[in-house]
Design goal:
Number of helices: 2
Number of domains: 1
Strand order of the largest sheet: 1-3
Strand content: 15-25%
Length: 70
């Protein structure tokens, strides 16, 4: 029973679905996610840079950094 609950949780979280990995600045004010850990948008981060799933970033209200792809 516990295994099926864990698997269901993983499916709902997005990790088991091959969700993409993105990077965020772990501060209370950051609102963007980044596709690369060396994005210029992360250079001003004075907190930790954290790797999370794209789904988790979007559920947290984050949007793609405007510097991505430039």
């Amino acid at each position: 029973m516990k295994t099926s609950v864990l698997l269901l949780g993983l499916l709902l979280s997005g990790y088991a679905q091959g969700d993409s990995v993105v990077y965020i600045c772990d501060s209370g004010h950051a609102k963007r996610y980044h596709l690369r850990d060396d994005c210029r948008g992360l250079h001003n981060c004075t907190h930790h840079i954290v790797k999370i799933s794209l789904g988790e970033a979007k559920r947290g209200g984050r949007t793609l950094c405007g510097l991505e792809g430039k």
